TrEMBL record:
InterPro entries: Arg_succ_lyase_C, Argininosuccinate_lyase, Fumarase/histidase_N, Fumarate_lyase_CS, Fumarate_lyase_fam, Fumarate_lyase_N, L-Aspartase-like
Lineage, uppermost ranks: Eukaryota, Metazoa, Ecdysozoa, Arthropoda, Hexapoda
CDD domains the UniProt entry points to: Argininosuccinate_lyase
Cellular component GO terms held in the UniProt record: cytosol
Pfam family name, one: ASL_C2
GO molecular function (one): argininosuccinate lyase activity
Family: Belongs to the lyase 1 family. Argininosuccinate lyase subfamily.
GO biological process, one term: L-arginine biosynthetic process via ornithine
Originating organism: Cacopsylla melanoneura
Name the record gives this protein: Argininosuccinate lyase
Keywords: Lyase
Domain Fumarate lyase N-terminal: 76-366
NCBIfam families: argH
Length: 536
């Protein structure tokens, strides 16, 4: 009796090994004939009396087993082509939506219970198991299978595997069509809040630096030629204004993102008596979508979000470009800590601003994502088409890269050191006070065009004599017009040039400080709103 039991255990183990090997070769895409040959040979060695037909049948069973994993297999007579399975899967991309998918499913089953479509104990076991599945995914204890196509089918199949037919009730009253767009809206909403927070951090650093450098003089440029002196604080606040508009655009975009499509089902809604207001509340959406067909069909919220990110990264690229120029020894306006610079493999003296250059470079990548999604959407008929599977890569790539750029720039701007003396010396070159002298003559009663011509002749004289305005004596200045008097000395003081532009939006130190306080109030207001949303 002992020997017979031992023989059966050995034979059982051999069968398991044989089946695993056969299944492995199937996955490695061995030709059918090779698979049959392998199975017959090893079946014989294992003491299994299998014929070619039996072996062929077993390999077919493996393919059928894969097909049986499809939750939509009901009306199909043939197994899915292996290449088609690989071509159409999206789990390698959409696996990052598992949290949103599980959160949406928990809200959905809670709603089903409130409408009498699932029992209390069924709701509880589904929610408990979904939460366990989420933990297992986070800890890599679940293998997400390409055979199951996407994150939705992987999670639902795992649920059914664990709790049986009760898990099959979860999908009542919904489709993957409304499920995926719900996930995407939740994902986009979450990352809008993250991006706003990162922009606020950059604005805080800009406000702090602007306050510190309210009186620091630098050259202002037009056509990248010296134009007029401005304060460094005024310069930095210009970018703070841009990022403020970016935040406002994101807040506005969020309103259109935060609409609940769940319950739209495939395109027309469902015959079940569901409560979409309840799922909206549970998932923190503002309201359910107005039209089920529209909910499923469009990805304009993704397009709007990516286009807003294009503006953000464009602003980041512009300030990065200027910082790269300011770091150049020919300017020497800016120094960055070595921890934000890289070296050269051949030139030992090099300290390269790679972080700023990469921000500038990633701008094109995010622009491309916008063109990608616009092109994907341009010819689609209404409701879901498989083209929409391609909406995720541009969205995810945009989110990843805009966040990296914002984090990198936020860390970099905080550590930036400006060379005040070098900026001042450059500002007094290039006749940057010319417009101030024109304004001086206008205030004396001369027409603007006449004043402009007089100052032009002064510049020509200085160039011929290799002088600047500050080199001219009062006697020389008065030769250009009899309206010029001793008080022009105040006009030719570069500090006064800033001081006299003391109006809303001007570059005077007083106006810079007022603007800094305005920005700080704005930052606090938006921060409070974000904290309220997070606590909610």
């Amino acid at each position: 009796c002992f020997n017979q039991a031992f023989v059966w255990k050995v034979r059982s183990a051999k069968v398991v090994v044989w089946l695993l090997a056969t299944k492995l070769l199937t996955k490695l895409d061995f030709k059918q004939s090779r698979l049959v040959e392998f199975s017959r040979c090893h079946g014989f060695l294992l003491g299994l009396n299998t014929t070619a037909n039996q072996t062929h049948k077993m390999s077919e069973n493996i393919a059928t087993e894969i097909m049986n994993m499809k939750l939509w297999k009901g009306c199909f007579k043939q197994n899915l082509n292996k290449f088609v399975e690989q071509f159409t899967e999206s789990i390698t991309v959409d696996r990052r939506l598992y949290k949103e998918d599980i959160e949406g499913s928990i809200a959905h089953v809670t709603m089903l219970h409130s409408c009498g479509l699932v029992k209390e104990e069924e709701k509880e076991i589904i929610i408990k198991t979904l939460q366990e599945i989420q933990v297992d995914i986070e800890q890599n204890r679940i293998e997400l299978k390409t055979e199951l196509e996407d994150i939705h089918m992987n999670i639902e199949s795992e649920l059914i595997k664990r709790i049986g037919d009760t898990g099959r009730k979860l999908h009542t009253g919904r489709s993957r069509n409304d499920q995926i767009v719900t996930d995407l809206r939740m994902y986009t909403r979450k990352h809008i809040d993250v991006i706003i927070e990162l922009l606020l951090t950059i604005m805080k650093h800009l406000a702090n630096l602007s306050e510190k450098h309210a009186k620091t003089i630098m050259p202002g440029f037009t056509h990248f030629q010296i134009a007029q002196p401005i304060s460094l604080g005024h310069y930095l606040l210009a970018y703070a204004c841009m990022f403020q508009r970016d935040i406002n655009r994101l807040i506005d975009c969020r309103k259109r993102v935060n609409i609940n499509p769940l319950g739209s089902a495939a395109l027309a809604g469902t015959t079940h008596h569901i409560n979409r207001y309840l799922t909206s509340k549970l998932l923190h959406f503002d309201e359910p979508s107005e039209n089920c067909l529209d909910s499923i069909s469009d990805r304009d919220f993704v397009i709007e979000f990516i286009s807003t990110c294009c503006l953000i990264v464009m602003h980041l690229s512009r300030i990065s470009e200027e910082f790269i120029i300011f770091m150049n020894p020919q300017f020497n306006f800016l120094s960055l800590p070595e921890s934000f610079l890289t070296g050269s493999s051949i030139m030992p003296q090099k300290k390269n601003p790679d972080v700023l250059e990469l921000i500038r470079g990633k701008t094109g990548r995010i622009y491309a994502n916008l063109i990608n999604i616009l092109t994907t959407m341009k010819c689609q008929t209404l409701a879901y088409n498989r083209d929409l599977q391609e909406d995720k890569l541009p969205l995810f790539d945009t989110v990843d890269n805009i966040i990296m750029c914002l984090v990198a720039f936020g860390k970099l701007i905080e550590k930036s050191i400006f060379n005040e003396q070098e900026m001042y010396q450059t500002a007094i070159k290039g006749f940057g006070l010319s417009t101030d002298v024109v304004d001086y003559l206008v205030k004396k009663g001369l027409p603007f065009r006449t004043s402009h011509e007089i100052v032009g002749s002064m510049i020509k004289y200085c160039n011929d004599k290799h002088k600047t305005f500050s080199d001219l004596t009062l006697t020389e200045l008065k030769t250009f017009h009899n309206f010029i008097s001793d008080d022009i000395i105040d006009i030719l003081c570069i500090e006064n040039s800033l001081k006299f532009k003391n109006h809303v939006g001007g570059t005077s130190p007083d106006q810079v400080k007022i603007s800094v306080q305005t920005f700080r109030l704005y930052i606090q207001k938006i921060t409070n709103k974000l904290e309220f949303k997070f606590s909610d």
